[in-house]
Amino acid sequence: MASVSNTTTNGAEALYQTLNGNSQKTETKKSAGEEMQDRFLTLLMAQIRSQDPLNPMENAEFTSQLAQMNTVNGIEKLNSSLNTLLAGYGEAQAMQAAVMIGKNVMVAGNNLPLSAKPEGEDASRPPALGGLMLSSAADEVTVTIKDASGKTVQTQSLGSQSAGSMYFAWDGKDDAGNEMAAGNYSFTVEAKVGGEKVEAKAMQIGMVNAVVRNNNGFSLDLGSMGEVSFSDVHKII
Predict the structure, then answer these.
(1) What's this model's pTM, rounded to 2 decimal places?
(2) CB atoms near residue 185 (< 10 Å)
């Protein structure tokens, strides 16, 4: 029995030295995964050498330890693949967002900015565009445009509309036909079918002036409407 005890003691010392990093280091720089794999194999071999000959390691235990090594190696490869995939996705999203510069997009909101009237008698002011979304068809849709103080400026009846998104144009005049000053206006939407209310959501329309990169990906600069997330765009007009 003395020989068995000596073998176990010597093996324990070897395992202790390995755990404390006393094994010889190579000069070749390796990846974190390769270093972990080498360390794992070194520890495993030390464990095999120090095992009790009368009670050797079971096959199932040996296989389990090898599986752990493969799992660690596999996780490193998976992380590398995910990083490559995310980098490619970011580049694709940047190209897609850049194409939207100069285009009008529809996002949630009720802002209705009105531009100034161009100089000249024959010059016409570009209409202000707004949008809305209906959860179901309606036989009566009404848009109410208001100034900064909340006073009603113009009321539009859009008649019967199908479910989905649509847009309307405001000529910049009040109900009496007077030209309104340039600035930020707002609007509300009301929809009914058979006298019952239908869910209606206001959607603002703005032109994409620039694409801004941030920690969450990309956002679109809509001028006076601020920045919106690329994922918030409901429709490109």
Answers:
(1) 0.60
(2) 22
